[in-house]
Write a structure and sequence with these properties.
By secondary structure, the chain is mainly α. The chain has one domain: Cobalamin adenosyltransferase-like (Hypothetical Protein Ta1238, Chain: A). Helices cover 57% and strands 4% of the residues. The chain has five helices and two strands; from the N terminus they run E-E-H-H-H-H-H. Strands 1-2 form a two-stranded antiparallel ribbon. Strand 1 and strand 2 form a beta hairpin. The longest helix is centred in the C-terminal third of the chain and has 26 residues. Its EC number is 2.5.1.17. InterPro entries: CblAdoTrfase-like, CblAdoTrfase-like_sf, PduO-typ. Homotrimer. One of its GO terms (molecular function) is corrinoid adenosyltransferase activity.
């Protein structure tokens, strides 16, 4: 039988790849928050209607694997670390973001997070991704890390926003515009 507890963390220290750190270390906070995002991504996937959203459900499962890769990279303090994350996941996210942005109704103003339950879960993921990004940004100022992780988490928050909007659209649930929002989003042809 494998024990789930080791007792090695009882004094506030934890193992990272290539060493140990205090449990409140910024690196531990970074990969811990990435793990939290992974769990909320699982919840978002679990509430999706798989008949209506097979594409998003499959993407969320892939994202969970990529978040594990991010966590692994964030947990490494080895000088000769071989990173798991590269630029390919970001490219995949960008393609999905473009498809979902095109599918959803045109956006001009800020919207409230929510609409359907599934979209609300994706908005929660978006906000946790933003928090994860802030922590990783702080880590990058102090220590060496894989920069692709920061880029990925940044793009992932945009993905969750686009996915939440398309979920509402497919369910015929209107996004609620923030009532005091100015026009902040313009179509590309309006920018000239």
């Amino acid at each position: 039988m494998v024990r789930l507890y080791t007792r090695s963390g009882d004094k506030g220290r934890t193992r990272v790849i290539g060493g140990t750190r205090d449990k409140d270390d910024i690196r531990v906070e970074a990969y811990g928050t990435c793990d939290e995002l992974n769990a909320f991504t699982a919840k978002a996937e679990a509430v999706l209607d798989k008949q209506l959203f097979p594409d998003i459900a499959a993407e969320l499962t892939r994202i969970q694997h990529e978040l594990f890769d991010c966590g692994s990279d964030l947990a490494s303090v080895k000088e000769d670390a071989v990173w798991k994350m590269d630029d390919q996941p970001v490219s995949r996210l960008e393609k999905s973001i473009d498809v979902y942005t095109e599918e959803a109704p045109e956006l001009q103003r800020f919207i409230l997070p929510g609409g359907s339950s599934a979209a609300a879960e994706l908005h929660i993921c978006r906000t946790i991704a933003r928090r994860t990004e802030r922590i990783i940004t702080a880590l990058a100022k102090e220590e060496t890390m894989n920069g692709e992780v920061l880029t990925y988490i940044n793009r992932l928050s945009d993905y969750f926003f686009a996915a939440a909007r398309v979920v509402n659209s497919r369910m015929n649930v209107a996004d609620v515009e923030y009532e005091r929002s100015a026009v902040v989003f313009r179509a590309h042809h309006d920018k000239t």
